[in-house]
Design a protein that fits this description.
The structure holds three protein chains of three kinds. Chain A is mainly alpha-helical. Chain A is built from twelve helices and no strands. Chain A starts with a helix and ends in a 7-residue tail after the last helix. Chain B has an eight-stranded mixed beta sheet, with helices on both faces. In chain B, strands 18-19-20-15-21-22 form a six-stranded mixed beta sheet, with helices on both faces. A four-stranded antiparallel beta sheet of chain B has the order 2-1-4-5. In chain B, helix 4 packs across helix 5 and helix 7 packs parallel to helix 8. About 3% of the residues of chain B have low confidence. Chain C is mostly helical. Chain C has a single domain, classed as MetI-like (MetI-like fold), CATH 1.10.3720. Chain C has twelve helices and no strands. The N terminus and C terminus of chain C are likely disordered. Classes of the chains: A mainly alpha, B alpha/beta, C mainly alpha. The interface between A and B is medium-sized, with 27 and 30 residues.
């Protein structure tokens, strides 16, 4: 089992390298189509044409594009993604500071989404067994029509304005200083024993995570429900029933184990959705994550930063897909055959 | 009596009734049967006769939209229909066990054999410490090799026969009083079918279990069962001792069913085929009298208006037929095929061969590893040579996986050989040679196995039959007639009613679809038809219709046939020459009569032993082997 | 031949009846029809010009609330612009982006899916690789980068959505093509002598058309959301074009004092997307016989 996981990881890694290079190239070329000069912001108003040329040469912008890409790639391999034009800081340190917040947000959102969708999917399935068109199905369709950033606005209206019980700005309260051990606020504050600050961090995380989870769970519910419907038509379910197993046992022990497989695949494919949502949700909640950083970079035409964050998102997506592959193989014995 | 069912009647409830706009219709009517301890009752009928429904009802699963309106199901002194659902569930898996039809998909694919078995034993109340040893014992009892290793394996790693052994072991683990086996061997190869039936008999004798065996195969039932009940359209038409029902069938339907089954041994005879097909549920409400009336060769006028009652003709032998008919059977009427003119077409051996395969190999490769290297997986066909003469009917028999379907695909050109030559009408087919490809298309056409998959559901019968006319360059044979002319002609050739042209596949029965399938292949007037398992999905009476149609077409249009089948009796009926395939090679070949009468190769002998003999007094199946 | 024609006509009628028998199609189609009408007739039905600023009426509440005025049925925003008129004009951009993006993604994605799924082998692997490559990006991130590259404007937004979302069509349709490809009737057509192109068009394409139509409807909703997202960030269109995303961005500052300014575009987006999803779901159930049976 361990060997299998290792084999998948190795295969994934081997495939990831050309993927990352190709994707970086796509981003690089697209960004070079830029109609405005991103360097204008870096120069003082009094700069001469000579100064501009010197700056271009310094940043490597006077080279042909393929050469520029190779330089960027070489630097990237050495762990240097260049300097942000607007923040005047290395891209790696900007990303390094923001990444844990986004990962934390995505994982908490995923946990909430699963907590909603597993019972939700089972309920939708049970209701479906009784009637074809159910209120649960219509609810799912309605929920699916609300993107995460609208959830963010709606949740702020409800829990921030009309019934102000939860904070909706920042990652922790202003008075709290994060210890910065792992970068994950919930973990750091817990291991340093600052429970009051920990609950502040949690309450700040709740609304953004809920926004993401609410837009993600209808998709999971649908896949789970249709996985369960497929499983219900399989002979092994009827045979289990004829063996005298209870309906509850059949649903949770037999059908769910099978229905979970397409669900895992779908979560891997749609994780990009979660990250896409995080972009706006982080911006709306002033959450200092990668998504927020990306929006600022895009608004400021900060090419090195955009390029760096794009690379990070690809790495994250590839990592998630690797995890999903391993999970799928561990849960699906049919893939384990030699 | 362990189980006795009396006057069981199942009616379509409000939902189904409202749709038809009629009063509730009895889908099962007055089913009466009983099984004693240690006895085996066979419930025989074609698909749609309602035999599986009876099995489900005994388990307490009434299908949605139906309701039991009359009758009793007494099990061990209690009426199962009156029991609360929870009470009934307590009996299931303990006192009443089931063996399903599709063993491979009847085990949860993500659980090991051990996990599934363990769960079952836990429900039976076996203590957790004893379960592991008990599982191994139970698996060993059904002759599974290395039961200790079997526990850790997943269903997909087992063969269908092995899965069925596991399910049989689970069924007998609780020492049940009643076992319901629903087509337990239909999904299996002929050889494993024999083993599984032998095992079932062995276990049944050992545990003295009452068994209800549901099957479509009358001959198989006669050998395995003590008693047989025959169902037709939800009605029991005949019931009695197994040998008597098979030896002296009284009901015209039983007789027709028995006669429509071709034999592997004995004198050749023409198969009489019943016209039409069994009425479906929606048609039942329109039938006032005997449900077999429309197809009955000896129906009386009164049969159409009065339902018949079950009458006892001899002790314990009951028949639902008019008094005179049952005791005085008329010879079963055949169709217009002349018995004298009948024989499997031998073909023209003075002409050059129509199709010739020389040392043909077909191997499959799969991509493997991170960089997609190719790797040889298997030889589907291994250095095989064969020839087919004009007008000849040739058969290829073998089990699934023997490579016989690959030969069909090679000959029609759906697959290119890895090595070797294929000559069509004397010209070698080379990939990319358009002229030979076209010649080959006009010479060889294919009839597909599954008509459901072979007919585009969006085309009408007319557009299916004459699909070849949509080509820009139609073949010479097509130019002589217009498309509507040819459509009408083909419709008549394959024996479909005139109004079928505008119908869509979804509106046709299985037999009718297969006729369209044949008609489409005939459109370009090919000289060879390649037919891959084309009757395996059909009921016996419809199968006989299609077989006779093929014989007639062969005689009339002088078309040759390559019939690929796992069913030896069908091959014997149609083909003058037979090839036996095993693992990609032909192991025996010759005139059908000679090969079947004096098989030389052990594999051929094994295949022939696996066919239930027509004579019920011959002991079959052979005693259980240790081989899985 | 008349019998054939009658059969075909009957089938057509049955098809239409089946479509209209689906409440989801009726409701979803109805919503989209209303939104489309509002977008088409915006010049006549909107009470004000969407850009007209009335500095005397800033943040006035809806007409039924205290201090509301009939001239501004849904109130005004912080610049004194009529919220109702802006919502009506916003439907134009939403629908144009929705329809054009879905059309483009459908054409590219389905064509590649048909080619890859039907021919298999190298073509399929190449297309599959590009799809995998594309899907290694969170979709909105890719759209954002594209917009940074090509600049803003409605046409650019459409281009960005098409270039990102064709993969969705490609992936889903390809799976369906693979299933159809294995049906024997496709082989039968080839054995009769149909060319690959003819087989694709007459045997394979009709079988996957219901799925493509369904995806088209759902994709419209996705494109509308992406457009709203992009214009919320302020990247999608120039300021003189009114969009729902822009309205949301403008309303954020006044969330404590003037909720309605935010709620109107929120509702507009949700209702329109709901219309697309309902229509898509309904079409899926009505057109796919397998789903019809199990009522998915």
């Amino acid at each position: 089992m361990f060997q299998l996981s290792l084999a998948i990881i190795v295969r994934r890694l081997a495939a990831a390298i050309p993927t990352l290079v190709l994707l970086s190239l796509v981003v690089f070329v697209v960004l070079r189509l830029l109609p405005v000069d991103p360097l204008a912001a870096l120069l003082p108003p009094s700069a001469t044409a000579e100064d501009a040329r010197a700056l271009r040469a310094q940043l490597g912008f006077d080279q042909p594009i393929p050469m520029q890409f190779l330089i960027w790639l070489w630097e990237a391999v050495r762990g240097n993604l260049g300097n942000s034009i607007n923040f005047h800081q290395p891209v790696t340190s900007l990303i390094g500071a923001a990444m844990p917040a986004t990962i934390e947000l995505a994982l908490v959102a995923l946990a909430i989404a699963l907590a909603i969708s597993v019972p939700g999917g089972a309920l939708a399935f049970v209701l479906h067994q009784r009637a074809r068109e159910t209120a649960a199905d219509l609810t799912v369709t309605l929920l699916q029509s609300i993107p995460s950033f609208l959830w963010a606005l709606l949740l702020i209206i409800v829990f921030g304005v009309l019934w102000p019980v939860l904070p909706f700005s920042g990652r922790v309260g202003q008075e709290v200083v994060l210890p910065g051990i792992t970068g994950f606020a919930l973990i750091d504050l817990l291991i340093t024993g600052r429970l009051r600050d920990w609950s502040s961090a949690l309450s700040h995380l709740l609304l953004p995570a809920l926004s993401l989870a609410l837009s993600f769970s209808p998709m999971v519910i649908r896949v789970l429900r249709s996985g369960l419907i497929d499983a219900a038509g399989e002979p092994y379910v009827e045979v289990a029933r004829l063996r005298g197993l209870s309906e509850t046992r059949i649903l949770w022990r037999h059908m769910l184990k099978n229905a979970v497989l397409p669900t895992i695949t779908m979560i891997g494919v749609q994780f990009g959705f979660l990250f896409s949502g995080a972009l706006l949700v982080e911006m709306i909640f002033g959450f200092p994550g990668v998504g927020n950083l990306m929006v600022q970079a895009v608004k400021g035409n900060d090419m090195p930063l955009i390029q760096g964050i794009a690379l990070l998102f690809c790495v994250l997506m590839l990592a998630i897909n690797t995890v999903v592959d391993v999970l799928y193989a561990l849960l699906n014995p049919r893939l384990r055959a030699p | 009596m362990m189980l006795s069912v009396t006057n069981l009647t199942l009616s379509a409830g409000e939902q189904a009734g409202a749709k038809a706009g009629a009063k509730a219709v009895a889908v099962l009517r007055d089913i009466t049967l009983s099984v004693a301890r240690g006895r085996v009752l066979g419930l025989v009928g074609e698909s749609g006769a309602g035999k599986s429904m009876v099995g489900r009802l005994i388990a307490g699963h009434t299908p949605r939209g139906f309701a039991v309106t009359r009758g009793q199901v007494m099990f061990d002194g209690r009426d199962l229909l009156q029991l609360a659902a929870a009470e009934r569930r307590k009996l299931l898996g303990r006192r009443i066990a089931f063996i399903p039809q599709e063993p491979l998909s009847s085990l949860n694919p993500v659980m090991t054999i051990g996990q599934t078995f363990d769960e079952h034993l836990m429900l039976l109340g076996v203590a957790s410490g004893e379960r592991a040893a008990a599982i191994v014992n139970h698996l060993a009892a059904v002759h599974l090799p290395r039961p200790e290793a079997m526990v850790r394996r997943y269903p997909h790693e087992l063969s269908g026969g092995q899965c069925q052994r596991v399910l049989i072991a689970m069924a007998f683990a609780s020492d049940p009083a009643l076992l319901i086996a629903d087509e337990p061997t239909t999904a299996l190869d002929v050889v494993s079918q024999t083993h599984i039936l032998a095992l079932l008999k062995e276990q049944q004798r050992l545990h003295q279990t009452a068994v209800l065996l549901i099957t479509h195969d009358l001959r198989l039932a006669a050998h395995v069962c003590d008693e047989i009940a025959v169902l037709y359209a939800g009605e029991q038409v005949e019931r009695g001792a197994a040998r008597e029902v098979l030896g002296q069938p009284c009901h015209p339907y039983t007789r027709a069913l028995q006669a429509a089954n071709p034999d592997v041994h004995g004198s050749q005879r023409q198969l009489p085929a019943l016209a039409g097909q069994m009425p479906g549920i929606s048609a039942l409400s329109a039938i006032a009298g005997c449900r077999f009336f429309a197809r009955c060769p000896q129906a009386l006028a009164a049969c159409g208006s009065e339902p018949q009652l079950l009458r006892e003709v001899t002790t314990g032998h009951w028949v639902r037929c008019a008094p005179g008919c049952a005791t005085n059977p008329a010879p079963v009427a055949g169709d217009d095929l002349q018995s004298a003119a009948w024989s499997a077409p031998v073909g023209d051996w003075n002409s050059p061969p129509l199709v010739e395969l020389q040392e043909v190999t077909l191997s499959y490769t799969a991509r493997w590893g991170a960089f997609g290297q190719r790797k040889l997986v298997s030889h589907a066909v291994n250095k095989l040579s064969l020839r087919i003469q004009p007008g000849e009917f040739v058969g290829i028999v073998g089990e699934s996986g023997s490579g016989k379907s690959s030969i069909a695909r090679l000959i029609v050109g759906a697959e290119a050989p890895t090595a070797g030559r294929i000559n069509i009408a004397g010209r070698e087919r080379i990939p990319g040679d358009a002229t030979v490809a076209r010649l080959s298309r006009e010479c060889v056409q294919m009839i597909f196995q599954d008509p459901h998959s072979a007919l585009n559901p969006r085309r009408s019968v007319y557009r299916l039959l004459t699909q070849a006319y949509e080509l820009d360059h139609t073949a010479g044979s097509l130019a002589r007639k217009t498309r509507p002319e040819r459509g009408a002609e083909l419709l008549a050739d394959v024996g479909l009613p005139a109004d079928a042209l505008s119908r869509y596949p979804a509106q046709l029965s299985g037999g009718q679809k297969q006729r369209v399938n044949i008609g489409r292949a005939l459109c370009v007037m090919p000289r060879l038809l390649v037919a891959d398992e084309i009757v395996s999905g059909l009921d016996v009476s419809v199968q006989a219709q299609i077989l006779n149609l093929l014989l007639e077409l062969g005689r009339r249009a002088n078309v040759a046939l390559l019939l690929i089948s796992h069913d030896l009796s069908v091959v014997r009926y149609l083909c003058s020459r037979v090839m036996v395939m095993q693992a990609g090679s032909i192991v025996e070949e010759g005139k059908t009569e000679e090969v079947f009468a004096r098989p030389q190769h052990p594999y051929t002998q094994l295949l022939l032993r696996s066919v239930p003999p027509a004579d019920p007094s011959i002991a079959w199946p052979p005693a259980p082997g240790q081989k899985p | 031949m008349s019998a054939l024609a009658a059969g075909a006509a009957e089938r057509g009628l049955l098809g239409a009846g089946r479509l209209l028998g689906q409440p989801r199609i009726l409701v979803g189609g109805g919503i989209l029809l209303l939104v489309a009408l509002a977008a088409l007739l915006a010049t006549w039905i909107a009470p004000h010009d969407p850009l007209e600023q009335d500095l005397l009426h800033m943040l006035s509440p809806p007409m039924w609330a205290d201090g509301g005025e009939a001239a501004f049925p849904l109130g005004t925003d912080s610049l004194g612009r009529c919220v109702l008129s802006r919502a009506i004009y916003g439907a134009r951009v939403a629908l144009i982006v929705g329809i054009m993006s879905a059309l483009g993604a459908m054409l590219i994605g389905s064509t590649l899916a048909l080619l890859g799924g039907y021919f298999g082998g190298r073509i399929d692997r190449a297309i599959g690789y590009v799809v995998d490559l594309w899907m290694s990006f969170p979709p909105v991130v890719l759209s954002l980068i594209l917009l940074v590259g090509v600049g803003t404007g409605v046409d650019k937004v459409i281009l960005a959505v098409v270039l990102v979302d064709w993969t969705r069509f490609c992936r889903v349709v390809r799976a369906d093509v693979l299933v159809t490809r294995r049906r024997d009737y496709v082989l039968a057509a080839r054995l009769i002598g149909f060319s690959h192109l003819r087989t694709l068009l007459t045997e394979v394409l009709p079988a996957v058309t219901p799925l493509i139509i369904t995806l088209f409807s759902i994709e419209m909703g996705v494109a509308i959301i992406v457009e709203a997202t992009l214009s919320f960030i302020g990247l999608s269109v120039p300021p003189d074009v009114t969009t729902w995303g822009q309205m949301l961005a403008d309303a954020r500052g006044d969330i404590q004092s003037a909720l309605w300014v935010m709620l109107v575009p929120v509702c507009a987006i949700i209702v329109t997307v709901l219309g697309c999803n309902l229509l898509g779901d309904g079409l899926r159930v009505a057109l796919d016989p397998r789903l019809r049976q199990r009522g998915e």
